[in-house]
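Fold description:
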Amino acid sequence: MSVRDPETTLNYEKLLSVCGTATNAFLNLARSAHLDVRRLLLLAPDRTAKHVVAEVRLNGRWIVVDPAYRVIMRNAAGEMLTRNQLKDPKTFAIATAAVPGYRPEYNYERFAHVRLASLPLEGLHLRALLDRIFPKWDESLDWSLLLERESFFVMALSAFSTLFFLLLRQILAWYADNRLEIPRFQLRSHLIRAGSAFFSTPEIK
């Protein structure tokens, strides 16, 4: 099986016409060039994603690249811009003025690296909880791979859930043995006894 070359994805016009897939293609290509990159979601007031761009870390700054419009955001002096600089409406207007057909609603008033509104847990106000416990969780990890590949996200979630429930089982077992002093069903010992009975020759008297 041939290895997928990220450069070939840039030849598909339909793929590059959608901001999400265009950004994914750019991220794959940038990573193949050993660049530090991540996606950035531009959000509407209802927290839905209205546009997807990329951030590239250069000289200690995360500068914004819009793969769908094939543009690096720059100010009037030609300096590359960060998302915080683009929050200024004047700076945003200058940066997008020379880009044909750039939609003004793709501004940087609200943004995120992970949009939890698409998850069932959003009803539990998961973002607010995470912001309180770990304020920089959104930027501490590169979430792009989990967001781009649903199968990888499911696998990671399954692995985390397995470890969590195994740890919970051990805690409950310790509590039952040492606090409640309740005899537990020892699965391992029962399996050993069942195996011995099955494979050993019964004694006939």
